[in-house]
Design a protein that fits this description.
With 321 residues, the protein is mainly beta. The protein contains no helices and 21 strands. It folds into 2 domains: 144 residues, Glycosyl hydrolase domain, family 43 (Tachylectin-2, Chain A, 5 Propeller), CATH 2.115.10.20; 133 residues, 5 Propeller (Tachylectin-2, Chain A), CATH 2.115.10.20.
């Protein structure tokens, strides 16, 4: 959720897949096109009728050689230097050379890209120097999704979710740039402590912002954690880490700050993709959730809202629509 000064409304950008999306293309993903919702108060939301097919505000590139010629999904969106910057990702028709049959489908060769906009509605791609206009290359890896950035001094750090060809674990890789065009690879994300049970298989998405605790570390990262224990079946929860320099991280708590709802709720299985919005002393967090695929609400999924009125990262309460 971001405040859009042009529209004078809060906005949420999200990805979705229409019913006529070709079958067999990246079937485990919900990516396709990118749409937007708007709100005056952050609670009551209206779908925005965008200028592109199906009311979208961004669709796959028409150039068949582009890295995002088949589908696109949202990463991080930020307002800097008078423009909205959308760090998104997309896939082409290539089929990965993967040992995991779940991902041996066209569309899983994912790369990160950048688009800019004055109003958050009309987006212009800023082609990068890597494959098909992507920002960075993957050097043989087959999955580069959910990009996010943050500025430390005159450098912008780019984090991207990567998996190896066997799709065993999630790894966040980091690049740096001073002009948003030339990116230098720094390596995997660095930690000063050991993984906890809830993120033992890595993280999928990240949002980095200045720490709300002025007396603590300068940077805070809220992320989608993946539990690596076999009985948890890759369960997603939401964790928090902090950093003094924006490069080396440590977990702030021993457990996640937000977990799935009780059985029977629309989000009783997994919660993911958190995005924080600081409103005065309150923290507003949007997230993606879905129900247990074996439960009574198996088909339910969507975007939820949780608010911490105290500003405590462990004090979020769900808001029911």
């Amino acid at each position: 959720m971001r405040w859009n000064p042009v529209l004078e409304k809060y906005c949420i950008w999200y990805y979705g897949r229409s019913a006529d999306f070709p079958a067999g293309l990246a079937p485990a993903l919900g990516t396709g096109s990118i749409a937007m919702m708007t709100s005056d108060d952050g609670l009551d939301w209206t779908l925005y009728d965008g200028p592109l097919k199906g009311g979208a505000v961004m669709v796959a590139d028409e150039n068949p050689k582009a890295f995002d010629s088949v589908h696109v999904g949202t990463g991080d969106i930020e307002f800097r230097d008078g423009l909205w910057h959308h760090w998104y990702y997309g896939g082409d028709t290539g089929t990965p050379d993967s040992a995991n049959p779940t991902y041996a489908f066209p569309g899983y060769n994912l790369h990160a890209g950048l688009a800019v906009s004055e109003d958050g509605i009309h987006w212009q791609r800023k082609p990068g120097k890597a494959f098909g206009g992507a920002l960075v290359g993957l050097d043989g890896e087959i999955y580069g999704a959910f990009p996010n950035t943050y500025q430390v001094g005159n450098r912008t750090y780019l984090q991207v979710t990567i998996k190896d060809k066997d799709f065993i674990g999630w790894v966040s890789r980091v690049w740096a740039s001073e002009d948003l065009e030339t990116w230098t690879y720094l390596g995997p994300q660095t930690w000063s402590d050991d993984p906890r049970y809830y993120d033992s298989n890595g993280m999928i998405t990240r949002q980095v912002l200045h720490n709300i605790d002025g007396a603590g570390a300068e940077w805070m990262m809220i992320y989608t954690a993946v539990d690596g224990r076999p009985e948890k079946k890759q369960q997603r929860t939401i964790g928090v880490a902090v950093s003094d320099d924006g490069l080396t991280w440590r977990r702030q708590f021993d457990g996640p700050i937000f977990t799935a709802a009780p059985l029977g709720a629309w989000d009783d299985y997994n919660v993911a993709n958190p995005q924080l919005c600081i409103r005065g002393n309150e923290l507003w967090m949007t997230y993606f959730g879905f129900a247990d695929p074996q439960g009574p609400n198996a088909s339910q999924r969507g975007i939820g809202m949780a608010i911490s009125k105290s500003g405590d990262l462990r004090g979020f309460e769900r808001i029911n629509a």
